[in-house]
Amino acid sequence: MKHLLESELVYGRLLLIEEPHLVQRYNKALAGFGLPPVTLERFRIDMMGFSPEVAQALGDLDYLDPLKVNRRFIILTPEQERLPLAHSSFSNTGALMHRFFEANARALHAITIKDAVYGEIEDSVAAVDTLDDLLSINEVRFRVLSADDLLGKAADLRGLVDRLVAEDDLWRDDETLNRMVELARVTGDIRQNALVPDQLVFRHEAFWANHFGGVYVFLDEKTATVICDPEAPGFRRSRPWQVSYIPANDPKLIFDFLARTGRLQLPRASWVTQSGLIEHRRAMAVEDLIAHALPETDFSRLDPVFIQTFLQRNASAVTAEGTYPFLTEKLRELGETGEVRLDLVAPRQRFLLVRAEPGHRDAWLTNRLIAAQIPQDYLSRFIFDREGFYLRYEEYSDNFRAHVVSRLTSSYLRNKRAIREKLYAMGDEDHA
């Protein structure tokens, strides 16, 4: 992971916290969770306040996600909305946080001038023991607190103001008036500063969860579809009357579901030619072949001449693996006919020819599932399936790791939007 950390491919674009008052507020929020304070003078945080430095100091990577459900958050500044989400058990947590920031922008700006906001995204379950627990999460509620109890004091002041209006003689009570003045010194004019978040409940949409080896939950009008390890507790037993179950090791059923529900953009020359996606996947397949056959290769020499020489000298291995000749043939077929007969293609290879339907609400999740079926495409996995990318990265040789880091930093990180739009017709990522 050293190369990834140095290149900010892990924990990149985080916000540095070094102002003493913000460090103090962060420690008060930790105390609110029952955690010990840290003695760090500076650390970085992500959108939800997770800090790799704090995690290391506490010896707990999951200090804000202790049960992999009911995720905790710490907000020191509204600037956190622009940050990535570095650590999460659910793929849609970032999207929920964006919606929380957007719905409560005025209150969060007002509160964080004087206080830190912290709390939990409360699901309807306290722990995930079976698939039914995941399927029970239909909506989430943000439980919001503040480190110096600014929210509580604002609520107290609001109650006293309401009593002052309703009770004719309360204005004669010096104790009450003095208490209101004392609270107002802390909260400011609550008629002008909205200190209470407006929206705290949000619908839980389709998602991936890292439980039971990874679970995809897709929601359609009347049914839910779960894709995961068939050994996961509750598979085909949790709500069988309203849930369809697909084994994660059955590419045909997975592909048929995605295609039938309009989540895939099937191979047509109209978008394939413009995107260059299949050429990209062919190049990724060749790199993967070289990485396995010649792990100590100097990958800085990976130019067209080197690649062509490798393909010629290793023709038998290239043919046996099959991806390169398959994609070469399908590019020719697309050029001649404008489409591909998918019914004549092996189920696993079909994923090499498609991408998520860009306009579908589940496009990011669908591209994540596609990327998981094509592990040799490290770019797609880095974009859509970061956890899967990190696991496969550990299997690479040192030389190939250095090459992958170089490619990602020199190309993708410098042109993220352009590359996503070209290959996948996707704009800004909304949840990572």
UniProtKB/TrEMBL annotation:
InterPro entries the UniProt entry points to: DUF6638
Record Pfam families: DUF6638
Native organism: Gellertiella hungarica
Name this protein carries in UniProt: Uncharacterized protein
